[in-house]
Amino acid sequence: MDLPDVEEKVMFSGLVFMVNRKMCIGVMKDKIMLRVNPESLNSLLDKDGWNT
């Protein structure tokens, strides 16, 4: 699927997805890095597997 303003890039020894030239999510080996709304951060801190 071709989506405007979405781009895949190799970064951080993995693959990241950019939306409107901002990193949205990245996959590196067995880890996932993602951008989170700061207002949602506190509700995620008690979830298993979550690191800040």
SS element count, helices:
1
Report the radius of gyration as a whole number of Å.
Answer: 13 Å
Mean pLDDT: 86
Output the structural class. mainly beta
Describe the sheet with the most strands.
Answer: 4 strands, antiparallel
Order of neighbouring strands in the sheet with most strands: 1-2-3-4
Strand-residue fraction? 35-45%
- In whole angstroms, the N-to-C terminal distance is 32 Å
In short:
The protein has 52 residues and is mainly β.
Description:
The protein has 52 residues and is mainly β. The chain contains 1 helix and 4 strands, in the order E-E-E-E-H. A hairpin with a 2-residue loop joins strand 2 and strand 3. It has a domain at 6-36. The model has no long low-confidence stretch (mean pLDDT 86).
Blueprint (SSEs and pairs):
Elements lengths: L5 E6 L2 E6 L2 E7 L2 E4 L6 H4 L8
Antiparallel strand pairs: 1-2, 2-3, 3-4
Fill in the keyword field for this structure.
about 50 residues, mainly beta, four-stranded antiparallel sheet, about 10% helix
